[in-house]
Amino acid sequence: MSQQEHIGPSTEELVVEAREALRDRTRRRAARLGDHFKREWQIYVLLLPTILWFALFLYKPMYGLQIAFKDYSIFRGIDGSPWIGFEHFRTLFENDQFLRAIRNTVIISFFTLLFGFPAPIILALMFNEILNQTYKRAAQTIVYLPHFISTVIIAGIVITAFSPSAGIVNTVLEWLGMDPVYFLTKPEWFRPIFIGSGIWQEAGFQSIVYLAAIAGVNPSLYESAVVDGASRWQMVWKVTLPSILPTIIIMLIIRIGNLLEVGFELIILLYQPATYETADVINTFIYRQGLQQGQYDLAAAAGLFNAVVAFVLVMTANTISKRVSRTSLW
Amino acid sequence: MTRKNTTRFGRETMRKSTLSAAFLATTMLAQPGFADEHLRIVEEPLELTVHFHWPRNQGYEEDYPVEQAAREMTGIHLKDATAGRNTPDHNEAMNLLLAQGDLPDIVGGNRIKDPVNQYGPEGAFLPLGDLIAEHAPNIQAVLDAKPELRDAMASWDGNIYYVPYLPDGEFGRAWFVRQDWLDALGLERPDTVEDLYQVLVAFRDQDPNGNGEQDEIPIFLRHWEELIRFVTLWDGRSTGSDTYHDFYVDNGEVKHPYATEGYREGIKNIAKWYEEGLIDPEVFTRGTSAREYLLSENLGGITHDWFASTAGYNESLQEKVPGFDFAPMLPPESISGTRIEEHRRTPLKPDGWAISYANENPVETIKYFDFWFTEEGRRLSNFGVEGEHYELVDGEPVFTDAVLTADQPVNSQMWEIGAGIPRGYYMDYAYELQWTSDAAREGIELYEQNDLLIDQFLGVSLNEEEQAVYDRYWPSIQTYMLERQQAWILGTGDIEADWDEYMAQLDKRGLSDVLEVMNSAYERQYDS
Amino acid sequence: MSGVSLERIVKRYGALEVVHGIDLEIAPKEFVVLVGPSGCGKSTTLRMIAGLEEISGGTCRIGDRVVNRVAPKDRDVAMVFQNYALYPHLSVADNIAFGLRIRRTPKAEIASSVEEVAGILGLTPYLDRRPADLSGGQRQRVAMGRAIVRHPEVFLFDEPLSNLDAKLRTQMRAEIKRLHKRLGVTSVYVTHDQVEAMTLADRIVVMRDGRIEQIGTPMELFNDPVNTFVAGFIGSPPMNQFEAVVEAGERGPVAVANGARIALPALESLRHAQGRKVIIGIRPEHASIEPMPGASTVPVELDLIETLGSEALLHSSIGEVPFVIKAETGGDTAHLARVEAFHVAPERIKVFDHDTGRVLGAARMGVAA
């Protein structure tokens, strides 16, 4: 060892040197950062409202999530309520109705995705093939309209449409010589009706983003395909669809992130105790169990569970998408 | 008329004076100048802040004529400090208020009983028992007259934390039948379950509306929960209070109606009637427009609904449906021969107001609360301002013609001037009787002549442990009960086959635990 | 191979006519370049040949076939687009094979065709890549590969090099030229760059405002522009043009401009033209800094010397009129700074009518081949 000491700097010396270098670098970096701020402060001022918005409306409320682990009393406040660990989660997972709600949420979400996701894409592709501009605009307006109708009215329309006596659906069934069905009390019909009415309401509006994507496709891709001899169908299939694929994938990832956010207002308006079996989702369960009964801590626990599952889903979807299609949210 | 035994003279005088004497005194003393002063609580005007959230208006307006009059009489000014004015949900508003911690002097409005009884023992609200005894003779008189109300108002710690809105009048919903249909088919009003069944079958089959089609709907309801009320025909119960699916009290014991034999029998028969087409096949989804639609289309036969509004169709549909006669009828006798009307107006609303811990003038405040239970205060809160909205005729308040003939219903007019709003006050049924139609009045008389009413379950206040048990089990029990209930009625399940399994499930889901805490709370609250 | 024939081709958008009756005969295997400033109708004409634009009037033939009403895919043409029009989601091989797949060519045939084309274009190592992973030049080659692989009768190029940088452009120009030599397919090429036109074309078609100004080989256009427009468009740097008045000199007509006297060629139309206003055109290459026998000497004032290496551009002026001289440097620019005049032989001078801009004298008009 003594030999080595003569040959080069000692370990301590090296450490000191390294520390100094590090301190130097940090100082330099800090100075650079300071310069940077001085130079670009206007940009940071512009950013400020957004940061504040996020902090105030998205991050600050997260503080309240802790009530999922507390025996929460509104009057005692979040800090004044005692911790009880995973008690609420235990209560939830011991409840067969919560487990059923999870199952229903997953099933409804899955089928909503399966049928509801392609619908606006197909619609956009169809709109794109309409050549008459007046007709196209009229058709688009008509399919956008349901989006702007309040959920309560939508529920009213659905209930009327499926009514056994006056509903259009049963009227058609009767023409076809079939017996009327009291659809809204049949568990087996709830999901198709709910998912279908969701598509009816939103597909048109959601198609806007795809129409925008289609409008952004380089026209020479079509011209090239025309010269190559592609038919309209082939152009849709081989040019339009692949060109808007990144948009489709981004929308899909976002949708998967919201997968468990089943539009529960409509469910509450449409379901009956008779259809809870297939209709009761996590959010309606929370609504009945938590908000109506004032059990905010339990509702927060269920909501947190929902959010964690959604987070895992969107992460997974994003990773898969990044690997498979090189398109991703981040 | 005995209910008017409240006066401004305090307990001493009240005990001695007869009602007519009190009236005489009021009329004599209601002179300008003196009348303005004798109700005064404070010399210098005192401002009290108030949270007042209710369905029609999420706040308390300082320019209500009623508030102006009350200011003049008492010297106390209410200043609006309502939280959550932008949400129609009173629960949300209350939570907002409690969460912000900074409570106004008075917390009032719609459905404050539960939060007040829950957070009162935690220190958010002042217990009112002693304050009332010392400073609020008129409120005390009412509590003395109706001790069961005091029990029902109380929190689990035995204190009362709010002064309630006490409704007056007894009957709410009643049975209605198309008398003209009965006449057309030559039938009598049904008096027993069997009669009722025959009438319903006749309505279904014999084309009482005469359009040549079998499109009649014998039983229709605006709220499907009313259908469950029919189990009373088989000696079952659907609820014990004016809330659907609530517990009820049987011989001093809290029970749930959906776990009783009468219910089993009732649902079995309702399911049979549903199957036979005697009940609106769309009863679960037709919603609140059912009555309007089925009556005006001349399709509906029998319903169970509010006296006043239902009787009103006799007038409004006379042109559209010639000969229309929708008559109130007595509830048919049950299979055991008892005749009850399960629904009645609750004598105690969960609405009213309370004094918060932040209030620095609790005595003045309780005196102010008491003001609304005085003769003048009660009239003010029921009829509005004298000379403007009502006149005293023979000592009785009578609405002015302007109020009675206005396009708006009288209750809506009252809400706009600050009368009839859910403050702690005592409703006077005379207020409603003045604008109730003759048909409804006849019905009410018919009901009054028969002893139809049964005791109400006015609720219990659970302590923390009891509440925890209730919260843990009850929501899922109720969900399960309602699921089975609809399945049986719709015919996707058979109650006879399912009953044992159903009862076992209820037990498994903790019904006995819930009943245990309900009963312990009930004993604590009502037996003391 | 087929030729292409345009007869009185017209394009109208509503009431607006943008191409006014073009006549053009393109021989089989010929490489014709349409050149002109933007908005001159050259791309529209190309797209009408391709079938991407409807032909409003006149007749378009490919080979012997009138194709006015024939769908693009049945015209047997292939087109290369300015922005390559590659499908971003397909590999190079799939992009090249796209047209064949659409036509349901047998798989084995597609594979061998793609391989062959990739070999020709030097794309073999990149067949599995996506367009996003290629350089601009490689993308351009893929775009050409898509055209070549179908063995069409006619290639149509729509400004294919304008998205490339200067160096790549030069390189690709040469490649296109080589390719045309090798494949011998009739080609119509649209560009606004006269250098591309000069280097690639068998014949150049100069267009302006929806009309053809001149058709001819590059050298014909260079040497004998029919008007001031073509003279100014072809050649780099462009021909110097300035106004002058014709006077009679001792040995023939003389142009007087800003005090300089320049001997003009002995054109018939200038014989009795004293006092006539004309436009004089002198190419920078033809203005010599060395005195020559029989040449006029024009004094100039030197503003700026742009050195290009073996050559230099002398930016100067005759009085107020700017004038560019292209001179050999001989490896040194010092002597150029002392230039005070240039010399020009009369036969090198173009004389244009002052009002119509048309060339005077024996300059041949472009004739369709």
TrEMBL record, chain A:
Q: Write down the PROSITE patterns for this protein, in alphabetical order.
A: ABC_TM1
Q: Which residues form the ABC transmembrane type-1 domain?
A: 102-317
The record lists the membrane-crossing segments as 41-59, 106-127, 148-173, 193-214, 235-256, 298-320
Offer one example of a GO biological process linked to this entry.
transmembrane transport
Q: Which Gene3D superfamilies match?
A: MetI-like
> Per the record, GO CC terms?
plasma membrane
What family is this?
Answer: Belongs to the binding-protein-dependent transport system permease family.
Known PANTHER family for this protein? BLL4140 PROTEIN
Protein name (record)? ABC-type polysaccharide transport system, permease component
Whose protein is this, by species?
Limimaricola cinnabarinus LL-001
Automatic annotation (TrEMBL), chain C:
- Mind listing the GO molecular function terms for this protein? ABC-type transporter activity; ATP binding; ATP hydrolysis activity
**Originating species:** Limimaricola cinnabarinus LL-001
Cross-referenced Pfam families, in alphabetical order?
ABC_tran, OB_MalK
Could you tell me which residue ranges the ABC transporter domain spans?
Answer: 4-234
Entry keyword set: ATP-binding, Nucleotide-binding, Transport
Superkingdom of the source species: Bacteria
| Any one of the GO BP annotations | carbohydrate transport
Which family does the similarity line name? Belongs to the ABC transporter superfamily.
Q: Which CDD domains match?
A: ABC_MalK_N
UniProt keyword Signal present:
no
Alphabetical GO CC annotations of the entry are: ATP-binding cassette (ABC) transporter complex, substrate-binding subunit-containing
Output this protein's name.
Glycerol-3-phosphate ABC transporter, ATP-binding protein UgpC
InterPro entries xref list:
AAA+_ATPase (IPR003593), ABC_transporter-like_ATP-bd (IPR003439), ABC_transporter-like_CS (IPR017871), ABC_transpr_MalK-like (IPR015855), ABC_transpr_MalK/UgpC-like (IPR047641), Mo/tungstate-bd_C_term_dom (IPR008995), NA-bd_OB-fold (IPR012340), OB_MalK-like (IPR040582)
